[in-house]
Design goal:
alpha/beta; Rossmann fold
């Protein structure tokens, strides 16, 4: 066995969490000296080569070595790998995946992959009695999710609780997915029977499955569902109460984010549990950022936080304190220092002084320096870096700057559509068979299609096989059904809006996530608005800084972007934000967010046009699908409107030409997409509200920067008018668009039918 190959595999295991820890390096130095008879210098030499590789490449190198290890050597290497992985007491998820795969390849029956090597404080929570009622306070990076997962496993394994009698709820789908993954990684416990879901999903599933007359009016939207569920509990409906009393333990994650009617629902559930039913609640009050201030500064009436309702007489408080997210002492000290003295003082009742002082401290102590956004983006190429903004308008302005520089970025914000991997449509848009084999899948990936993805074909296969297995093949029909359900598995969705490792996101949308390096963009010296909730804004800053594992930088937003906008929303039901401006000529124009769910009419991308209506023919559809699959760098596009009986916005690919006018005009190519009804309705609502008597003239500063998969089921009403092969398979591509679009207006006048300018 080559010692060099073994060392390369070990370095892959070390750096797959994006950092080569000193104790890992020391362990390898001792191995080279005592076991391998290799010079110490070769460690750094191999590290320099390996650190340029992405996660998939590191995984491949590790697995290639594992596959060639002889049976009589496996125990020896297994001990080394496992000791190396746990040397920092906390196993990173990517390390766990490597160890799990090693076990599979070597057919080992050893429990090689506990999610954590529990500390005493973690163990106390994990192994508490099943009847205990615990409130666990955990700062970011202390292993809260891992402890919650191990708590589930312990309850099932040691206390013999049937998984179907275990209720696990959280605030977000991402948190639930991570919990499920952690449970599956840590044990052989089948997660399917566990009632593991968001509060909204649990309510919907319960009402739908109950099937009684009383609930028929509730299955409309999540808010009404929860109101209905609360109503049934409060009326002591026998069947509902019996269902609640069936639980033997309830686990609630991210409890600090639960307010309003969802808080009321959890209170009602807890009140109606059997007395010996335990409850474990995980939270961090310092990360409660959904109580008052929304992403764009709109104000809601302050709602009761679920944490505030928990009685200290009933719930015992436990704490997690050791931070595992980073081994940087500077960052750990900064995290701890920031949490201190977060109390309402008599001389600072509104928290303004504390907020301003902590912001000043961040700018002073954050060590990561740069020459601006462009420099930050350049440095981050090939690495997972996170750029955080308080508001979507700020994020979109930064994205616009990145696009102008031809820097590909992903976005992370509320209201974006589910971004199913584009390679799924590339594989299946013309696949007419009900199943697909692994060989056929990989052949399509490697030979027929020019797939752009960070995934290797084997990884992609494992993802779809997990969702739709049929013996050793994948059921295409089952896959289609699951993806067209409206709530596709997060395993088959891009984590962000786009596939770049450079992620620009709002702090709210990045909560619960982490990155090797975090850049936080905020205003350094601007006086806050009078209605600012300073306690909440202090917590928002804390959430931002604690997303990083190794490096943290703070940037002056006004200095970096020259941006000082305060956006607003059209109404409380819309996630779309906008800002009103005036041109040099005094005409109103608007900055409007583009890229929300349903902004693009996905059916019209591939369907026959209705009679007397502009649309796309079969040749144009096929060309567009090919074009969508080729997008790597952002492409600037324009939008204009058709005027028929109704106003419809359409997207054009083109380039700008210089004119003597105050703005450039697009030289248009044929239409390739129509905007959805929600975009049309909301844009018109903005204009009617802010500039009555005006209509849209031109929309620019919109960017196309990727694609995603669209899927419709076999019974979809639009199938007859969809061009083949997309109508037969149900798979096609839709463009990912984004922008802080500039919407030019003019006074309403007489238009001829056709294109309006």
């Amino acid at each position: 066995m080559s010692d060099i190959k073994a060392l390369e595999a070990m370095i892959c295991l070390c750096i797959i969490d994006n950092k080569f820890h000193e104790n890992e390096k020391g362990y390898l130095i001792d191995l080279c000296k005592d076991e391998f008879e290799l010079p110490e210098s070769i460690i750094e030499e191999k590290h320099q080569i390996m650190k340029e590789k992405n996660t998939s490449e590191l995984t491949d190198i590790f697995n290639q070595f594992v596959k060639i290890v002889k049976k009589n050597e496996r125990e020896y290497y297994y001990k080394i790998f496992f000791n190396l992985a746990k040397i920092d007491a906390f196993l990173h998820p990517e390390e766990i995946k490597l160890l799990i795969n090693l076990e599979k390849i070597w057919d080992l029956k050893i429990a090689a992959s506990p999610v954590i090597i529990p500390s005493n404080e973690q163990k106390e929570i994990i192994e508490s009695d099943s009847r205990s009622k615990l409130k666990v306070i955990s700062p970011p990076g202390c292993g809260k999710t891992a402890v919650a997962a191990r708590r589930c496993v312990f309850l099932v394994k040691q206390h013999q609780i049937n998984p179907s009698n275990l209720l696990v709820l959280s605030f977000s789908r991402a948190a639930i997915k991570e919990l499920r993954d952690r449970i599956e990684i840590a044990s052989d416990v089948d997660t399917f029977p566990i009632k593991l879901s968001t509060i909204d999903q649990h309510t919907f599933k319960f009402l739908r499955g109950w099937g009684q007359e009383e609930v028929k009016d509730y299955l409309k939207d999540y808010e009404k569902n929860i109101e209905g569920f609360n109503d049934l509990i409060e009326k002591k409906n026998e069947d509902v109460i019996a269902d609640i009393k069936n639980f033997k333990h309830v686990i609630i994650d991210e409890a600090q984010d639960i307010t309003g009617i969802r808080s009321t629902l959890l209170q009602n559930i807890i009140k109606n549990l059997e007395k010996d039913c335990g409850v474990t609640i995980f939270s961090d009050p310092m990360q409660a950022i959904y109580n008052f201030t929304l992403e764009e500064g709109d104000q809601n009436e302050k709602q009761e936080n679920f944490l505030d309702t928990l009685s200290n007489k009933i719930f015992s408080e436990k704490k997690l304190s050791k931070i595992y997210r980073t081994d940087s002492k500077q960052l750990s000290d900064m995290f701890i220092k920031y949490r201190l003295n977060f109390i309402e003082a008599d001389d600072d009742p509104d928290g303004k002084l504390n907020y301003l002082e902590k912001k000043k401290t961040l700018f002073k102590e954050a060590k990561e320096k740069s020459n601006g956004l462009d420099d930050d983006l350049t440095k981050s190429i090939g690495h997972k870096h996170l750029f955080l903004f308080r508001k979507k308008s700020e994020m979109l302005k930064a994205a616009e700057k990145a696009f102008e520089k031809k820097k590909n970025v992903s976005l992370r914000f509320g209201g974006s559509p589910d971004c199913i991997y584009p390679w799924i449509a590339r594989i299946f848009y013309d696949h007419m068979e009900p199943i697909i084999s692994k060989k056929s899948f990989i052949d399509k990936w490697q030979n027929k299609l020019n797939i752009i993805s960070d995934l290797q074909p084997e990884e992609a296969w494992e993802k779809i096989f997990k969702e739709a297995p049929m013996n050793v093949d994948v059921s295409v029909e089952m896959l289609r059904e699951k993806l067209s359900s409206g709530r596709p598995s997060l395993d088959l969705c891009m984590k962000d809006y786009g596939e770049s490792s450079n992620v620009l996101g709002t702090i709210h949308a990045s909560k619960g996530r982490e990155a090797e390096t975090v850049f936080y963009y905020t205003f350094k010296d601007r006086e806050p608005l009078q209605n600012t909730d300073f306690h909440e804004e202090t917590r928002v800053m804390y959430v931002a800084m604690t997303r990083c594992r190794n490096r943290f930088g703070v940037r002056n937003l006004e200095e970096e972007l020259g941006f000082n906008d305060w956006a607003k929303r059209l109404n409380n039901k819309s996630n779309r934000i906008y800002a009103k401006r005036k041109s040099h000529a005094g005409n109103p124009y608007f900055l409007v967010q583009v890229g929300l769910k349903d902004d693009i009419d996905e059916i019209r991308l591939v369907s026959r046009p209705a009679e007397n209506e502009y649309g796309l023919d079969k040749e144009r559809v096929d060309k567009n699908q090919k074009f969508f699959s080729s997008i790597i760098s952002p492409v600037e596009i324009g939008m204009l409107h058709y005027v028929t009986k109704e106003k419809k916005y359409s997207m054009f690919l083109g380039k700008k030409k210089n004119t003597n006018k105050e703005y450039n005009i697009f030289v248009l190519n044929p239409t390739y997409a129509f905007m959805g009804e929600s975009f049309t309705r909301e844009l018109q609502g903005i204009i009617n509200k802010e500039a009555p008597g005006c209509t849209t003239k031109l929309i620019d500063d919109v960017y196309l920067f990727g694609s995603r998969t669209c899927v419709v089921g076999k019974n979809h009403v639009s199938l007859p008018k969809i061009y083949d092969p997309y109508g037969k398979t149900g798979f096609w591509l839709a463009p990912l668009i984004a922008g802080w679009a500039s919407v030019r207006t003019k006074k309403k006048g007489r238009y001829r039918y056709g294109r309006g300018r």
